[in-house]
Design brief:
The protein is mainly beta. Helix content is 11%, strand content 48%. The chain contains four helices and 13 strands.
Length: 345
């Protein structure tokens, strides 16, 4: 068998970021939270017999974030240098692997569909640092995250979707040969969110709060600025900062706290986010090569609602998302669901 040298750039990128992330191992690497987040347009369809693959059709993210006692010294020192982070915050470091896939609405057609979005995949590794601070009962979480990966055939999003569709007996997509070309990608995300804003006791054991957030990203894959607000109603809301999501979107928090005296928490939520988008490679096409593209809309909004349940050491969430049209020829708003499961070690 001849070696496939086309895989070398992908391997080099993944190994480089993995080496940087794990160059200094935390004192107690087992103390942390492992999360898996899956987003799929099938979760957003009430008609389960209908073909739903379109736009952002699937995303998966595996995430590990340390407990404060397991945060390495370099993580705390780096947090002290980040100008947006508050003094005296609790520092955590996290690592992630993720893959997003995007398709046009008609996955049966083999030819290029000029008026619909390109086939594209984004596979990445991530490293993040967070600072969590509680001031007089009002929490604040700052997150700085770097994603490095690849867009194009070497993201292997096409292979993932085709093999999964064969496994479940669904229509196999035919147009991945038209996907964007290979392009290394880097995105830097920053986000700040608050909780317990306007907190009030509604019923015995039931409370409500507002969780506003602001954020931005910069890179050749995604560049945008966004802000939003989430209303939560439930029990023990100080456990986390919301249900985890895959960016771009209302990302919540990958970690959660479980005080021994109150190990159970739950809440329902509804949230909104608006984003001003300057760059989305899945719509704008490749940065340095000719490729399929569509006319991207500069303003995009998300509305989401769902629930979260936590019983130490496990958290489970479900989120239903409605996203406004992202490009001019898109026929309808996008709908998809997100499920997550987190386990604290």
């Amino acid at each position: 068998m001849r070696p496939n040298f086309r895989l070398l750039p992908t391997a080099a990128i993944y190994l480089a970021i993995a080496g940087l992330a794990y160059a200094q191992e935390p004192p107690d690497p087992k103390a942390g939270t492992l999360s898996v987040v899956v987003e799929n347009d099938k979760f957003g369809s009430f008609n389960q017999s209908k073909q739903t693959d379109r736009n952002f059709t699937n995303g998966i993210r595996l995430n590990w974030i340390s407990e404060p006692r397991a945060t390495p010294r370099w993580g705390r020192e780096l947090a002290a240098w980040v100008p947006m982070f508050p003094d005296g915050g609790t520092t955590r470091v996290g690592y992630a692997f993720g893959q997003n896939m995007y398709t046009p609405e008609n996955i049966v057609a083999r030819d290029l569909q000029l008026r619909d979005r390109p086939y594209s995949g984004w596979t990445y590794l991530g490293a993040a640092i967070t600072s969590d601070r509680d001031d007089e009962g009002q929490g604040r979480l700052d997150t700085l995250e770097l994603n490095i990966g690849i867009v194009g055939p070497q993201s292997y999003a096409g292979e993932t979707q085709r093999e999964y569709h064969r496994l479940i007996g669904a229509q196999v997509p035919q147009g991945w040969k038209n996907q964007l070309r290979n392009e290394p990608g880097a995105v830097l995300f920053y986000e700040r969110k608050w909780r317990n804003i306007g907190r009030s006791d509604l019923l015995p054991g039931i409370e409500g709060d507002f969780s506003p957030h602001i954020g931005a990203s910069l890179g050749n894959v995604f560049t945008y600025a966004g802000t939003g607000l989430t209303l939560r109603i439930g029990h023990n809301l100080s456990t986390d900062y919301g249900a985890p999501r895959i960016r771009p979107g209302l990302a919540g928090s990958m970690h959660f706290d479980t005080p021994r005296e109150r190990p159970f928490a739950f809440y329902g939520f509804i949230g909104i986010e608006g984003r001003a988008v300057a760059r989305d490679i899945t719509l704008d096409g490749n940065s340095f090569a000719r490729s399929h593209s569509v006319d991207r809309r500069p303003l995009v909004g998300d509305v989401q609602f769902g629930f979260a349940a936590i019983y130490a050491p496990v958290r489970a969430t479900f989120t239903y998302v409605v996203r406004t049209r992202e490009f001019e020829t898109q026929r309808n708003a996008d709908r998809f669901g997100a499920v997550s499961l987190s386990v604290k070690f």
